[in-house]
Amino acid sequence: MRPFTHINARTVKQAVTALAQQNGAARLNAGGTDLFGLLKDEYLPAYPDMIVNIKTIAGLNYIKEDKNFLRIGALTRLADISKSSLLRQRYAVLADAAHSVATPQIRNVATLGGNLCQDVRCCYYRYPRHIGGPIQCARKGSGACLAVTGDNRNHAILGGKRCFAVCPSDTAVALTLYDARLLVVGPGGERQIAVGDFYTPLKNGLRSDEMVREIQIPRLPEVPQQTFLKFTLRKPIDFAVVSVAALVSQATGICTEARIALGAVAPGIVRADAAEKFLRGRPLTAETAAQAAELALADARPLSRNAYKINIATALVTRALLGQKECEIPPDEVKAYNPTELSTFHRCSSSTPPGYATVVESGTATP
Amino acid sequence: MSDEYRFIGRSTRRKDATEVVTGATRYVNDLKFAELLHGKVLRSPHPHANLKSIDKSRAEQLPGVKAVLTWEDVPDWKGGTPRITRVLDSKVRYVGDAVALVAATTEDIARQALSLIDVEYELLPAVFDVDAAMQPGAPQLYEQLPGNIVTPGMPAFGPNSLREVVMGDVEQGFGEADVIIEGTFGYENIPNPIPPEPPGAVALWEEPNRVTLWVSNQASYLDTIILHHVFGRKVEVRTHGAACGGSFGTKLLSWQLQSHAVLLSKATGRPVKLIYSKEEHIAAFVLRPGSRMQARVGMKKGGTVTAVSGKWLVDTGFYSMTTQAQVAVGCGEIQLMTRCANWDLQTAVVCTNRNASGGVRGFGGQELKCSFIPLLCQAMEQLDLDPVEFIKKNYVKPGDGYFWRDGAWYTYRGIDYSDSMEQGAQCFGWKENWQGWLQPSSVAGTKRRGVGVGVHGNADIGEDSSEAHVRLNPDGSVLLFSCITEHGTGQRSNYVKMVAEVLQVPMERVSITDADSQINPFEYGPFGSRGTYAIGSAAIRAAEDARRQLFEIIAPRLKARPDELDTADGVVFVTADPDRRTSWRAMGHERTILGYGRFDPDFTLANCMTTFVEVEVDTETGKVDLLRVVNATDVGQIIDPPGLEGQLNGCLGSSGIDSALFEETVLDDRTGHILNANMIDYKWRTFSELPSIDNVVLETPVDSNRFKAIGVGEVATSPGPMAILMAVSNAIGVWLHEYPATPERVLKALGRVKARSHTGGAA
Amino acid sequence: MATAPAEKRPPAKHVSLVVNGRAVELEIGSQPHQISPSHTLAHTLRETLGLTGTKVTCDNGACGTCTVLMDGAAILSCMTLTVECHGRSIISIEGLADGKTGKLDPLQQSFIDHTAFQCGFCTPGMIMSAKSLLLENPSPVEDEVKEALSGNFCRCISHYQVLRAVMAVAGKEA
Fold first, then answer.
1. pLDDT in tens, B118-133
2. Which of B555, B583, B599 is the last residue of a domain?
3. Tens digits of per-residue pLDDT, B429-455?
4. Is there a contact between C127 and B18 if contact means CB atoms under 8 Å apart?
């Protein structure tokens, strides 16, 4: 990596003061797992002059619930969020979303604040400098969005404007579902931003001299049915193709509350207002869930190669509302042979009679 | 399985195991050198351009920079087949092509220097599609290659190297067919095997004309020969093959980066290390060739193929080094799996403005069959043929013949693989699951399961030459001279095992030399599946030769004839009277015995791998999950069970089965950028996504070497991709012919992607 | 009390950490024996401390090859700044065997016994991820092993043999 000045901030004030003094040329380092992509691939026009380590700020790693809010310190690690028994019991969507991020090694250092503030994953935007890059685009302030006429399989189907990159944060989906807000600190003091309003097509809502200090979730009075689903080509590592979080409360068979949040379909996290309104006061059935899902995607306007995301999002919304994590073929429907071992080495003789006899090696080498 | 052996066929520890698990194994980047400089390559942002001017003065002034080289500074060294690709050229031919080289005291300084080189490009139109590249008026990558068609034939395979399959009477064959199918099918997602260790080398030039390289390659001896030719046969080249962190064939194409390191060392007089970043590895190293086949096949009701005609187009990217060889081997392999009397299959290797393709595990045959088997499937569907019965009937049988890579006709003398196919099918439960073409094996809700099968085999198990020496020491220890790097197959340990078996000494008493080209005899290297039969034969023969010499020397001492003697554990004894014995020390303490072994090519044996897969498709999301895999093969004699199991499990990695599921290199066909040159966006299989695997391995002795064994490592990756497409098509009830079977493609095949108004490019 | 502005404070001159049980003091600077603020832990381990057992595949946080333990937890040394390791305890693959007797860690021995590697380049990272799991959960079930290793890349497909090797020592750690 190219050189930079490095400081360890001891307080939030020190951190934002440094940001302000550097006037846009400093970057915060929380977990670093997104920052290093920028530092190593140098995909942005400007390289940071200074890295401000904020891990050295004490007291920003907590999960606590008071009368009004569940409060999470911005430096709380994703591993701690995914393993928190409080969250597992009452805010399971957030715990699941945190667990779905990246890999165990990354979750051991990545923070909630960092996950929310990470840069987009657009393949044009992040194209590395060292292989004939970087590629200029609207998000970098010059030129058009290359995804519109290029490879847009992972881009926005909703709300794209000048830039069609999607919000890559999984935890933002959960937080938007919970109507959470960010407590943001700048040189002039603190302000609050709803997570649902935090992301816009070209950037997030943080000024270059601000940092997120705390995430506040309005306390859930009860524990509703809640489900987080993330569609990827494989687990883990991948960023979502589509992710959906849904929350439903029912009384006497009727939905008293219904919330749906969609991630990776738009520059920000989308709350499906029309679908939520449709469900409130109706019973939750496979049919109403499917109707709600149609409503949730009614405004989708796909690009040339991402219409398939509408299918996936529709399926995920339906399943999330119904609380289906996975649907599987029942074992008795499966024909023949269900292996009991994950892998088996059958050493056979060529004259084995029908009926199939094998010698199974344990795979242990002798000296 | 034979109990007659002391080591062969038994699970033994890898010789390098302790080093591997303690981190002590030295890969190229782990070697230490005094005064080492770091090399970096400036890469082109354009897919096709002339270099109008390069100003390197700012870079040269940066403290720590020791050399900056452009095409104007370097000799006219060229590589490739034909040898027309310069190590640095006045023209760039893909996004990522080398523009200039820097050597500096640290990597950071070298990289910073790259940003200080000012280049003026004259942009040229670029072409990214093989058909478009052959059109009149298409951009031309090389003056020497009109129409961008690479000179056919692989000189190393001889003047008649195979470039087509022509025999019999095609028209007559089609006349005999009950069904004739015609179509164009491709395997064009150019996946990348991405070994974990990136390509790299260290070079040390010594004036006037000598260079030593430390390389990462499965075949380090070949680097010596390749570079000798690249350097105009005027430079003495020595290579040290370090431990190789995976190659899968690709690292044979390291000549360009090795040459860059050599040029920088020549310019600075210091050792220069040049290691690619993972981004360079994916965007500027070796991809699988793109394969597109327009063909016609005739088939009879019973599954007899009566005729095949057509054209196989192979996209090699900006140059070819091995692609004609892949075409030659592929043309041979297609005959192994299709017993057909009438052929007219033509080929062309075509250059396009993208990163180069080259040798990857499956070497031509995987690429060809991934295009060809979907065509056969159309015919099988028409005739309602079970594909397992088809491959059993059509895979090469003893007495059959085929044209192999040198253009000569060979008669197959190996085994009939039907037994392994049948046992694999039984293990998989094929009969219970096969419901006919485009029929799922089970359905529940949105989930549908389907099964598929693929087959692949290669007569490369006896290709090319190998040599080895075996030295017996009076203390009873043994040294095997073989220019082999350990690249993951465990074969270095297996050759030790073979030598130990011949000489009946514990494996601990047998060492193997480092892969130094100066101390070892010729070794082509472990390509294809030649390791066990070809390289193993050289080691066995060298051990046998040493044993014979030992007996000749010791026989008088035991008052016996040499042929009456035997040896075990460093003792020679009379077979009929084991008490008449003496230790190897009797050879004399001022003596060593050096045996020599050689293997010459033999194309009359072939291996075979059949892979069965079951997938589950979610018809709402288009997601395809691989549930289980059964590999079935016959290896004659297992050398090392865990090593073989690892090779077979390798079917999932190195752009094998997964190239039909999620692996692909994403090329922007407007700009030429590879858009997923990182290990998040290039997908690979994780521990969370392991299907169950059964490996069914038969051991029918085959007339190969002393141990009746043949190799199968290479072919593990190859049958899977086509089996996946078959399984997905069966699951969803409609044909899916594009690799990989992404949700987008599955949903499109199902007709479920809704057409909606586009944004109209609102940006 | 007001804190001094960041840039007025003298920069830390040293980073002190423990590597494989040994205290290590690193000077910050631009000389070859010093570390730069931009150096990753992977770079420092390999180039400054000569501990080349930690391998680097992607150098971008996606493959797990460079995994080491930081205070017992598996982290990626390519995504960690050395200057941010002050006061931390790092264990790399070289630190697993018994320092006095040289006896291998049971995990290492099990990897040998099961030939749980092919090219071996990813093996140190695999072992460190597995070690981190066993420290936290000495008796994992197979799914927990898969989860713990889910961020580790292997292209040869040694996964199945690695699972056997780890499960063979699960529940047997001292």
1. 999 999 999 999 999 9
2. B599
3. 999 999 999 999 999 999 999 999 999
4. no
* Residues of chain C neighbouring A238 (CB-CB closer than 8 A): none
Note the pTM of the prediction, 2 decimals. 0.96
CB contact under 8 A, A364 and B11: yes
The DSSP secondary-structure symbol of B278 reads: H
CA distances from B350 to B127, B164, B317, C128 (A): 11, 15, 7, 45
- C81/A29 touch (CB, cutoff 8 Å), yes or no: yes
- What class has domain C106-169? mainly alpha
CB atoms B680 and A145 under 8 Å: no
- B429 and A164 within 8 Å at the Cβ level: the answer is no
ipTM given for this complex: 0.96
User: In this structure, what CATH number is given to the domain that contains residue B572?
Assistant: 3.30.365.10
Sorted by sequence, the CB contacts under 8 Å of residue A19 that are 6+ apart come out as: A26, A28, A52, A208, A209, A210, A211
CATH says C13-95 is which class?
Answer: alpha beta
B15 touches chain A (CB under 8 A): no
Give, in words, the CATH class of A225-321. alpha beta
Q: Would residue B140 count as lying in a domain? A: no
The answer to whether the CB of B200 falls within 8 A of the CB of B275 is yes
Does C10 touch chain A if contact means CB atoms closer than 8 Å? no
Amino acid in the structure at residue C168: A
Going through chain A in order, the beta strands assigned E by DSSP cover 5-8, 26-29, 50-53, 63-65, 69-73, 181-186, 189-194, 211-218, 225-231, 242-251, 254-263, 270-271, 343-348, 359-360
Q: What is the pLDDT of residues A77-98, one digit of tens each?
A: 999 999 999 999 999 999 999 9
B258 and B318 in a single domain? The answer is no
> Quick one: B457 and B483 in the same domain?
no
Per-domain residue ranges for chain A?
225-321
Residue B160 within any structural domain of the chain: no
Query: Is B34 exposed, middle or buried (CB count within 10 Å of its CB: 0-12, 13-18, 19+)?
Result: exposed
Give the structural domain span for B35.
31-124+196-247+250-284
C37, C76, C147 ranked by CB distance to A106: nearest: C76
List the 450-489 stretch of B: residues with Cβ below 8 A of C: 486-489
Number of domains observed in the structure of chain B: 3
